[in-house]
Design a protein that fits this description.
disulfide bond, EC 4.2.2.23, Beta-galactosidase, Chain A, domain 5, RhgB_N, signal, Immunoglobulin-like, secreted, Jelly Rolls, mainly beta, seven-stranded antiparallel β-sheet
Length: 559
Amino acid sequence: MSSYDMTENAPRRRTLLGAAVAGTALAAAGGIVPVAASAAAFGWSDDGTQYVLDTGAGLVFKVSKSTGDITSLVYKGKEYEGYGGKHSHVESGLGASTVTLAQSGSTVLVTVAHGTLRHYIAARAGLNNVYLWTDKADTSFTATRFIARLKPGIFPNEGPDSWVEGADSVIEAGDVWRRADGQTRSKHYSGVRVMDYTHVGHTTGSVGLWMVRSNHEKASGGPFYRSLLRHSNELGVGLYEILHYDQSQTEPMRFGLQGPYLLAFTDGGAPDPALHAAVHDTSWVDGLGIPGWVGAAGRGRVAGVGLAGMDADRPYTVGFANADAQYWTRATAGTGAFSCRGMLPGTYTLTVYKGELAVHTGTVTVTAGTATALHTITLANDPATAPAIWRIGDWDGTPGAFKNAVLMTYAHPADVRAASWTGNVVVDGSDVSGSFPCYLWKDVNDGVLVHFRLTAAQAAAAHTLRIGVTTAFLNGRPQVTVNDWVSAIPSPPTQPSTRSLTNGSYRGNNHTFTHVVPASAWKTDPTQYNVLRLNVVSGSSGTGFLSPGTAIDCVDLLL
């Protein structure tokens, strides 16, 4: 076994062991034991203030023994880690922590303990990855994230989440920037839902550095949540794994062990697809003794025969959620068959989404080591099946059919590329969704008008007007006026309390406002246009794009 000088802060001495000797020592001990490895291959050393882990394949990284920060990432002799005097760490850095190390065969595991939070960092022989886990037990930290801080000037400073602090102008909250050409940039402008990416990072063409996300079972927000994934400027680069973040958040924080997620170096290309959370073989973690780790044998699966009542033109997602975990899977086009594996045992709310709109909910129980089979699920709650006199947009839980919607996932509403936010439309048989603004604000485009005609028979009856929204800012919600008839002020639905419409997210809680418009409100002459006016109301105030607002999913008038 190795011999160490246990004096605090003193450089430790070690005995060099070959791989065979290290394996013998481990077997004799019957578990994880501190073992030093050959300096010429995979292994670790202690320089007094940091643990130095060498994958033996080109990556050497260091972990501070006092804070658990990753203080160095050297790949093929080049340093990539650190900017602004800060290093790579959980949250914004844990500060003083208890940091220990143990080796188990071809894996070295560093454990970082800070209060009730535990963080784990691992290296595996021959693989140029840094494996990470975070175990959060309570709300002593308000967010759950890991940020890798990388040196400036190595990777290209480009993309909607990049900016130049020395040249661009701040236009909102210190984190939204306008370039000289009028385009806007922010760390929030990833433009990607969590279900749509497996990794994020940068490449020079010859070297790539990527954050490969975990399965997010202990994260919050569901499959359609958008959060910051990376940022870059002339001062440095950040790569994130965000598990709980309060921006546009719709769910409480979940607790427990999350991971592995990892930093992966490549020779310029994307990381190995075998590292993606959905297929990653993590059986090697089973023997590391990480508290809270549940291997494949302790997990179950849900499999569904299919979905009946699907819209052939829309994608469907099946989500599972309870207070402890969340999962999702895509339903097969045509049949709606689905399968979700690797789930922790428990009872979950099962939600079927058409696009991002819930059209079915139920419950399902998952048992370790077995597959729960579900018969065909009939979708009976799709609002699009109701016959309508006219409809603007699609009932899919997103503002995607409307003007500026796609741009708003990676730009600010003030961006030069945005079309005018006004948007009066005339419903006369054609699809006018592309002329209708995706967002309405009290101080920007209040009072949008919809002109439409009714037949004499239609004008003789009351009709239901529906307005679907996906989120709101400052409790903004639509009050309607039809000709001279004015609706009551609707109560605000529960929505995130933070910025949303200006930081790349329309995702909140989908809600439908329903108004029964009496026959007395309509024009009786079928050649005359009725006029629907949408006004944003709120008990709060703000200016410009930070005034009360809402994102529109669909507006229709039922037969």
